[in-house]
User: Fold this.
Amino acid sequence: MPSTVLTGAGWCGVPGHAVSERARCSLTVGGVNRRILTLLIALVPVVAFGVLLSAVTVPFVSLGPGPTFDTLGEVDGKEVVDITGTEVKPTSGHLNMTTVSQRDGLTLAQALTLWMSGREQLVPRELVYPPDKSKDEIDEANTADFRNSEANAEYAALSYLKYPRAVTVESVTDPGPSAGKLKEGDAIDAVNGKPVATVDEFQALLKTTKPGDELVLDFRRKDENDPLGTTTVELGTNPDRDYGYLGIGVIDAPWASFKIDFNLANIGGPSAGLMFSLAVVDKLTSGDLNDGKFVAGTGTITGDGEVGSIGGITHKMVGARDAGATVFLVPADNCAEAKSDPQDGLELVKVGTLTEAVDALNAISAGGEPPRC
Assistant:
């Protein structure tokens, strides 16, 4: 019987097919198997690379534009800069502090995606998280810097507004001799009936004491119900000194009877100081420091009002522009870097002190020419 050759959709292995047909089917199946094997082999490096992209982390941290916060506005229903116990002027416009976003634990795919966006900067992780410190230690230090910037912002603003200085309690050790008797922010006016106007005068009196002595302290407190007080403290011992231990830290600082609270959580570092100070000045003066404009900025600040440089200035400028700012206050030492990456529609104003920042905003409001980078 002659063999049958299928010209249509025949099936291999069907009984009754000719021998030649079965051989042909065998060859076809073998070819298909080889092609599948070749494809699988080719896919191995692709799959491996995909796993590499998604699973392997890289020793880099991404830095980019972060959120901005209006120091004249509210966050979570609270005033960012809340002043109680005195008249506060209504404000307009914006005085936004700026931040840098930070992403750690990046996979290779995330790092490549962020880098290709053109908005993010990849830096070696050790520059952000030094290997000799834990992440928790660094986060705690950043939080401490932020709290310190709040205190300096208050002192700088009150100094600018000409409030008189006093021996001010900056910290109270707990447990310690003064715990429960003095509070942070108290102004000490007299020790055992002797007036003290400076920290030097206060320390000179303290050095005449010994452990176990009792000190009578006259103080003022930021409390409308109990603004004046007197307390007696029995001095303790401290191995670092041979005189009595009071258990407080004091500084010479401008003092006012009202309270200033800053209500921003989960923000680290000291660079909000300038914008916090400007918000305090604005709320305690005309309330129109920025002439209703959208002003953003950055900069550390000392208690005496000196504005210091910060990191990530170009990222902060992008964040400010994206938020709608038209004026950006730049620490004088950051001007060269800021000019290297200008943002359309964002006017760069150079400031070196709180006074210069206030004067620059007044100049802008009056249609004048502020100092520029």
Notes: Residues 211 and 244 are 4 Å apart (CA to CA). Confidence is low (pLDDT under 50) at residues 1-19. The longest helix spans residues 19-55.
